[in-house]
Amino acid sequence: MTKPEHASFQQHRWKTRRRIARMPRRGYLYIAVMFTSLVVAGMIATAVSLSTSRWKSLAGDADRQAALRLAESELQRAVEQLSQDSYWRESALGGQFNGWISAEVFSGRADSRTGFVVEDPDGDFLDDPFDEVLLTGIGQLGNASAAVRVRLRSAQSPARFLKFGVTIQNDLQIDSAVLSCERDIQVGDDCIGSSDAMVVTPRLSCGGDIGLSVRGTINSDALDDGTHDVVRWFASQATEIPLAMLPYRDSERAINHALLSAQDNPYGPVNEQGIYHIDAQGTQLTIAASRIQGTLVITNSQRIRITDAICWESQNAALITDSPVLFDAVGPLLDEAVCGTNFNPSSTPYGAGYQNSTLSDRYSTVFRGVFYSTNNAYVLATSNRETLAITGSLNVNGLYLWADLAIRSFDEVLANVPLGLSDPNRLEIAPGSYYRTVTPPTQ
Predict the structure, then answer these.
(1) Rounded distance between C-alpha atoms, residue 295 and residue 302, angstroms
(2) Mean pLDDT of 385-412
(3) Which residues contact 25 (CB under 8 A, 6 or more apart)?
(4) Which of 189, 282, 336, 384 is 20 to 30 A (C-alpha) from 225?
(5) Domain spans of the chain?
(6) What SS3 state is found at 415?
């Protein structure tokens, strides 16, 4: 039995519809696959971009940290460079960049370099050799840069001349006498004397001719001295004693029958460091029969005469002057009864605290400290013909002896050096002064 024609037609239409219905589904699937592919590609691109950015960020951080390390290392290098240059303050360009140097040897990269800037806060590098200064270290690596700043101060290393018992800028001349010294002696020019003159020292460094007997090693090393104005520095720290306040002795203004210390000053206000300055105004000055516990700075004197019994002790500098110094007839005993002065009141006890209010004590003559003159020193016989002894060091322009002189070691000053007797070139970074700062101009 054959199917009706209309039934066959209906079946054909149904199949056609199915084909038509299936065709859009395949298109949607294609679109979905393409869309998914684009999303995945976008995610990959984003991941790659983020990874690249992250890598660049990490690389930038690493460069910045490396630049900071370079800046810190530049601080140390600059401190050493300045410490080795005795005249850096004269040539310093305050606030100006010092110039680049390659840092490839430290970083391993050719595009690395360092430099520094040094500044004096008061704008004058020459007004005080011990002024603190600001040092900025700069490091650069690729496009990264960093700067760190510190304060530099004196390391208070002993001045070079303190390593010697005697330093003489020019001539040493000895006439029938002996110069003995527990430390080395350095002389800038000739060492001459009579046939019976002698120097006894571990080592004598003489820059000129030697015309006397020497017990010890001899060499011709260059004079090793300081570079700053010692007299000026100590005068700036001192309390002034007006010349008119000093009494006369043998027609000369004199420190005589006096006790002078950080707690006692018969001529005016005290100085808590025990440093006193006298401007002699071209006159001759005498220091006699007194106890001095501190530092005397004397300028513009025609001649300073040290005579009679003296008990002169200082933890560092005893006498700082630009004037000639004469040791003449120095006596052995300082007697309170003779002088009419109590030299050990409660304000300035003697030794390990011995004090009283009587006038019955006597004190052996002693010179303890650094005796420094930019002029000459002359030594004549003591009143009892005994050897004149100084425990400390002697730094003078020229030394002329007509009597024996012994210089004994004074190790304490090397362990507790005041600024004025330290080497201004030796610098150190002040603790707690480190901080990061903006990179200064480098052009």
Answers:
(1) 20
(2) 96
(3) none
(4) 282
(5) 67-158+427-437, 160-421
(6) helix
